[in-house]
Design brief:
By secondary structure, this protein is α/β, with parallel strands linked by helices. The protein contains ten helices and five strands; from the N terminus they run E-H-H-E-H-E-H-H-H-H-E-H-E-H-H. It has a five-stranded parallel sheet, sandwiched between helices. The two termini are 18 Å apart.
Length: 211
């Protein structure tokens, strides 16, 4: 990925925090940490990649510090309005889980246990209070949104709504469900490469699926 220049995963501060944790378990706090990190390490605007609630944090970074972000890749962006209540979110979890690989749980459960149920709930509630459909209208850089074809947390209508709201939005569909980057690394890399290629472009509202 080096040939793409600076590619930064917005979820790194959330998923693999050092001890002690760098910030409270809330989306705005994660965005602040990511902004400070990019400001420290990057020599030029980055391609900022966020998955799931990390996409919400990435949006906040791009809105607050547009000088740091040359393009956004938002993978499985959460949460559509109806999932901002726990019953609907739990139903989406059940639908999505039917399409996730068997090896996913051993990969993610240790991080949930490390954070603890209280911090996990705090983070989810923070993400549910967020309104990415409003924030994305302020994003000046190109934005590429992607969802897995069976993603119940980022349904097609929701991704379409965000794409239409972004001044330079484009969307695509990948195989798999919400955690498609876990199982389809090559497809994910191609999505990030496409986002990087659009840095500084005018953008169009189109849908598609990477080969």
């Amino acid at each position: 990925m080096r040939r793409l220049g600076e590619v930064v995963p917005a979820g790194r501060a959330r998923l693999r925090p050092p001890e002690p944790r760098p910030c409270p378990a809330e989306v705005p706090a994660v965005a602040d940490v990511v902004s400070a990190w990019i400001d420290e390490i990057a020599r030029e605007p980055v391609v900022l990649v966020g998955h799931s609630t990390g996409a919400q944090a990435a949006l906040r970074v791009a809105a607050a510090r547009p000088d740091l972000v040359g393009a956004l890749a938002l993978l499985g962006p959460t949460f559509p309005p109806e999932q901002r209540r726990m019953p609907a979110l739990l139903r989406a979890y059940v639908r999505n889980s039917r399409h996730e690989p068997l090896g996913l749980q051993p990969a993610i459960v240790p991080y949930y246990l490390r954070g603890g149920p209280g911090e996990l709930l705090r983070f989810i509630r923070s993400a549910q209070r967020d309104q990415p459909e409003k924030l994305i209208t302020e994003i000046a850089c190109p934005v590429l949104l992607a969802r897995g074809e069976h993603d119940a947390f980022a349904p097609q209508w929701w991704v379409d709504r965000l794409t239409d709201a972004a001044p330079k939005g484009r969307s695509t569909t990948a195989p798999g469900a919400h955690t498609f980057p876990y199982q389809h690394g090559g497809v994910t890399a191609s999505i990030i490469a496409e986002a990087a290629a659009r840095t500084g472009s005018s953008g169009e509202h189109r849908g598609g699926r990477p080969e």
